[in-house]
Amino acid sequence: MASGSSKKKSINPGVALYRLLRGVLGHDISDAELARQWGMDKKSFWRLKHGKTLLPDIEKMDRLAEMLGTTRQVVMAVGGGLPWEDLVTPIRTRNEKEQMLVLARWASAGIVTPTGPEYLKGILFDSLSEPVLGIDTRGTILACNHACRDLFGHPPEDIIGKSKDFLYASKSESRKATTRMRRAIVERAPFREVFRFRHKDGSVFEAELSGRMVLDSHGTPWAEVGVLRDPNNSTARPSGRS
User: Fold this and answer.
1) Looking at residue 219, what is its pLDDT?
2) Which of 106-115, 163-172, 190-199, 215-224 has the least mean pLDDT?
3) Is 230 helix (H, G, I), strand (E, B) or coil?
4) What angle do CA 177, 55, 128 make, to 5 degrees?
5) pTM reported for the whole predicted model
6) d(CA 213, CA 227)
7) Which of 2, 47, 141, 185 has the most CB atoms around it within 10 Å of its CB?
8) Which of 146, 142, 133 is nearest to 161 (CA)?
9) pLDDT digit string (tens) for 68-112?
10) Given the DSSP bridges, would you call strands 191-198 and 204-215 parallel, antiparallel or unpaired?
């Protein structure tokens, strides 16, 4: 049964992480001390607390998971817009099984928020046959589904958290994708473009990336969601590595 928190209004991803942090650790620790433990300066911490910035980089997300005694998967899910309240007690009690059950309930109930429903479905429903990637505006891979394993040869856990350079055939190709993403931010429109990627075995292949920007509850772009397809057949999965 879906949690009642799914009906609450979406909040900024940074604010959600701050509230999760406070929910688990309480209010006895000052913001200054939390910022120090998190490895953030006071200004950056204030901006995150008040929803004035995007998600922290992957190292800080890992540090937050360490502070809370949980996993990257959990903090990424909260940063992706899912209800932080449901995780406070399981994290406090170090109940890893219950944390995973919460994520599973979110997926099975189809709980999504205005932060980006297609994005959340894409990373939670691994029944999708097409490879799906979620990449933040800094170029960090936030999420991918299991179809990416067949395409790239890497399991999702080896992809998530890395720079997108990890998947492209070259840094110049990755920079080309960055330029296209920045244009999408300005245009606020979906895009389709063919890029060259690299498989784990070293072979290079082309795939059409159909992407769009995901906005937070304030309308600020914070991630790109992309579906990868065969450039010669938009309904087929990429093939033809060389």
Assistant:
1) 66
2) 106-115
3) strand
4) 60
5) 0.50
6) 12
7) 141
8) 142
9) 999 877 887 787 667 788 899 999 998 887 887 776 666 544 444
10) antiparallel
The answer to whether domain 4-109 and domain 117-229 are alike in fold is no
Q: 10 Å Cβ neighbour count for 2?
A: 14
> Both tokens of residue 55?
């998600």
In eight-state DSSP terms, residue 141 is E
The full set of domain ranges for the chain reads 4-109, 117-229
Q: Residue 197: exposed, middle, or buried by beta-carbon count in 10 A (0-12, 13-18, 19+)?
A: buried
Q: Determine the Cα–Cα distance for residues 199 and 150; give it in Å rounded to an integer.
A: 9
DSSP output for 2-30:
--GGGGSPP--HHHHHHHHHHHHH-SSS-
Burial 76-105 (b: 16+ CB within 10 A, else e): bbbbbbbbbebbeebbeeeeeeebeebbee
Task: Report the C-alpha gap between 13 and 84 in whole angstroms.
Answer: 10
> Rounded to the nearest 5°, which phi and psi values hold at 208?
-85, 125
Question: CA-CA distances (angstroms) from residue 238 to 158, 193, 234?
Answer: 20, 13, 9
How many Å apart are CA 141 and CA 115, to the nearest integer?
Answer: 17
CATH code of the domain occupying 117-229: 3.30.450.20
Report the alpha-carbon distance of residue 44 to residue 29 in Å, rounded: 17
pLDDT digits over 202-237, tens only? 999 999 998 887 765 566 777 788 889 888 765 444
4-109 maps to CATH 1.10.260.40: yes
Three-state SS at 56: coil
Q: Cα–Cα distance between 11 and 114 in angstroms, integer?
A: 9
